[in-house]
Structures are given as structure tokens and as C-alpha cells.
């Protein structure tokens, strides 16, 4: 059934234009036991702070690698939490910043070596992961990523679409307030004032039409190369979601309940790396949302419903969204 969904793909029109990874030697098989890696991560941490020497890089054969997996979105889906939690895995190294290589024309023009230089140092058999949620909705990105590595693994974390749209609005609202600017209420933006129908021109609404964006990606990548993460469950009960990602990335299961603890003050799960080092996400993650008129919520939920059904069908992952 999945194959039949590729109806708009004309076979043979999308040939890899010399994928960059194919010009590189194949990745080395895993040699260092994971426990050793965990120990050596201390070194990687020092490196990121600029405390490791070139000599250490040479000695430990550390390299800056292009990502083998990318969290492509969705904005406000829980992309930061997912990246930070995956980084608990000893074989994963995260690019801390959003690089915006594929969605920003200026960055893209700087070339793939610029992108690689933005990546953290890692052991050759570790996998580097970056996240830039704008990738999911930006027209040019699927083709550009495909040209870099046609077999890359793509992670998409989604939340119930109306909640995600409100979260998106809340982030923008906070930015406006910080600059002492006024902003419309969510209801005014989400509905077209003339028709009282859902305003599909509003970006926060458009971004939540997941299937529309995914269909563009499917012109380049088969559905098997995507893994959908349930962002609502990542908030409530992260471990099972992380275990599914470990399996998708062909990694041994290493993230455990020990690494995740619920912080009642924060109201979210936080991360425990070891006995001395733990951290919660920044306060900008987990904002209080404004109350939204229930009739507008219902209108949005009804609007998203058919798109959600299509999204379930394509991805094979079903959610209890209204
Ligand atoms: P809210 O601010 O709406 O609650 P992103 O990183 O893609 O911007 O997503 C932000 C969302 O991540 C937050 O949305 C929050 O709900 C969610 N999230 C998931 N797990 C979290 C965690 N452990 N700590 C903080 N926020 C988390």
C-alpha cells in the first residue's frame, strides 16, 4: 500500500546527482566498545569547550562527520528534547546549534565543507545528528539533502497539530513581547476574518499540515527512511519513543530509565548523563500556552482531521488526534 502512495513520483526523474557520501570511504565498523566510548565522551565534551588539543584529536582519530541522521522537524514538536535525549546514547554525537545549512541559501552556497566544519568532533563509528526544524517546511531542502546523502535517516517529531500551532504562536508571541511589541490573538490569526474559516495562509497552521510537507519529501526519499516520533509521548513518557529511535538508527539500546528523571518543578523529564551531570532543557521549552477559544480549537481540529488521516496512512503511525 505504501508504494501506491508514491503516485506522484515519476520513476527515473530523480537520480542522485553524485551524492557526496558515495565519494567517501564506507564508514568503519564499530570497533570501540560502547562503555569505552562513554568514558571517552568526556574528551568530546572538553573538545566542544575548546579544551582539547590538536594532538588529542590526532591521537584519538577524532573527525568531523556529516550527519547520518537529521531531525528535520517539526518546529515545536519537541525537536530539542529529542536531540538532547538521543545525545545520551554513547554512539550519538549532536550538533548543538541548528546549522540551517539546507534551508538558508547563503549557508548552502558556502558548500558542504562549511557544513562539515560545523559538526562536532566524534569517533569515526559514532553517528552525528543535527536538527534544524525549518528543513521540514522549506521547499528546496529535500533535494539538497538527497544530493548530500540519498540514504540518510530522517527523523520527524510531531505533536497534535492544533497544540503544535498554539505552541508555535506562543513562541512568536513571546518574541514580540520581549521587544515590547503587540501581537494579534491566536484566534484572529488562525481564522480568516472574512470567511471565519481556518486561515491556511497563517504559517503556524500551514506547518501543522504534516502530510503536505511530507509528500514533498517523499518525492526524494522512500518512506522507510523516515521515522515519526510522537512528540506528545516524548513529553509524558520519553523512553519508549527513544527506544524506537535507537532501533530505527540501528543502534544498540543504551538509553535507560536511569538517564531520564521527572523534574516536578520543571514539569518535564530531564536528562541524567551520570552521577554528577544532569540537566533540564532551557526555560524556553515548555511555555504556558494562552487559552484559546474552544470553538476555534474545534474548528482547527476538524480542519486538520483529513490531513492527519492521510499522514497516518502514509507513515503507518497512527495517533489519537481528534
Ligand atoms: P511547549 O513550549 O509548547 O510546551 P521544540 O524543541 O521543537 O521547539 O519543541 C518545544 C517543545 O518541546 C515544548 O513545547 C515542550 O512541550 C516539548 N518538550 C518535550 N520534551 C520536553 C522536555 N523534556 N523538556 C522541555 N520541553 C519538552
UniProtKB/TrEMBL annotation:
Catalytic activity annotation: alpha-D-glucosaminyl-[heparan sulfate](n) + 3'-phosphoadenylyl sulfate = 3-sulfo-alpha-D-glucosaminyl-[heparan sulfate](n) + adenosine 3',5'-bisphosphate + H(+)
Membrane topology: Single-pass type II membrane protein
Domain Sulfotransferase span(s) in chain numbering: 67-311
UniProt-annotated binding residues for 3'-phosphoadenylyl sulfate: 76-80, 159, 167, 269, 285-289
Pfam families, A to Z: Sulfotransfer_1
Record bears the keyword Isomerase: no
Cited InterPro entries: NST/OST, P-loop_NTPase, Sulfotransferase_dom
Single GO term (MF): [heparan sulfate]-glucosamine 3-sulfotransferase activity
Keywords linked to the UniProt accession: Disulfide bond, Glycoprotein, Golgi apparatus, Membrane, Signal-anchor, Transferase, Transmembrane, Transmembrane helix
EC number: 2.8.2.-
Domain of life from the UniProt record: Eukaryota
Localization terms from the record: Golgi apparatus membrane
Chief location bin: Golgi
Active-site annotation: 76 (for sulfotransferase activity)
GO annotations of cellular component type: Golgi membrane
Disulfide bonds: 270-280
Family assignment from sequence similarity: Belongs to the sulfotransferase 1 family.
Protein name (record): Sulfotransferase
Organism: Dissostichus eleginoides
Amino acid at each position: 500500500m505504501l508504494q501506491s502512495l508514491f503516485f506522484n513520483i515519476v520513476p527515473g526523474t530523480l537520480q542522485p546527482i553524485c551524492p557526496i557520501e558515495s565519494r567517501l570511504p564506507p564508514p568503519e565498523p564499530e570497533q570501540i566498545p560502547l562503555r569505552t566510548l562513554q568514558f571517552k565522551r568526556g574528551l568530546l565534551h572538553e573538545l566542544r569547550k575548546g579544551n582539547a588539543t590538536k594532538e588529542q584529536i590526532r591521537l584519538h582519530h577524532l573527525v568531523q562527520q556529516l550527519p547520518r541522521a537529521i531531525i528535520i522537524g517539526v518546529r515545536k514538536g519537541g525537536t530539542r528534547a529529542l536531540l538532547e535525549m538521543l545525545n545520551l546514547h554513547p554512539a550519538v554525537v549532536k550538533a548543538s546549534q541548528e546549522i540551517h545549512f539546507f534551508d538558508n541559501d547563503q549557508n548552502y552556497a558556502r558548500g558542504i565543507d562549511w557544513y562539515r566544519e560545523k559538526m562536532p568532533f566524534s569517533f569515526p563509528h559514532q553517528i552525528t545528528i543535527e536538527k534544524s526544524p525549518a528543513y521540514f517546511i522549506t521547499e528546496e531542502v529535500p533535494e539538497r539533502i538527497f544530493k548530500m546523502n540519498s540514504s540518510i535517516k530522517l527523523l520527524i517529531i510531531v505533536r497534535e497539530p492544533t497544540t503544535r500551532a498554539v505552541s508555535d504562536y506562543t513562541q512568536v508571541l513571546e518574541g514580540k513581547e520581549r521587544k515590547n511589541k503587540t501581537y494579534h490573538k491566536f484566534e484572529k490569526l488562525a481564522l480568516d476574518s472574512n470567511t471565519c474559516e481556518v486561515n491556511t495562509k497563517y504559517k503556524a497552521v500551514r506547518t501543522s499540515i504534516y502530510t503536505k510537507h511530507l509528500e514533498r519529501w517523499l518525492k526524494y526519499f522512500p518512506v522507510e527512511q523516515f521515522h515519526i516520533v510522537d512528540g506528545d509521548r516524548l513529553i509524558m513518557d520519553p523512553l519508549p519513543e527513544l527506544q524506537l529511535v535507537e532501533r530505527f538508527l540501528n543502534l544498540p539500546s543504551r538509553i535507560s530509565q536511569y538517564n531520564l528523571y521527572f523534574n516536578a518543578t520543571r514539569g518535564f523529564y530531564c536528562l541524567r548523563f551520570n552521577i554528577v551531570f544532569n540537566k533540564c532543557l532551557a526555560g524556553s521549552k515548555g511555555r504556558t500556552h494562552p487559552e484559546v477559544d474552544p470553538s476555534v480549537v474545534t474548528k482547527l481540529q476538524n480542519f486538520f482531521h483529513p490531513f492527519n488521516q492521510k499522514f497516518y496512512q502514509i507513515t503507518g503511525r497512527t495517533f489519537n488526534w481528534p
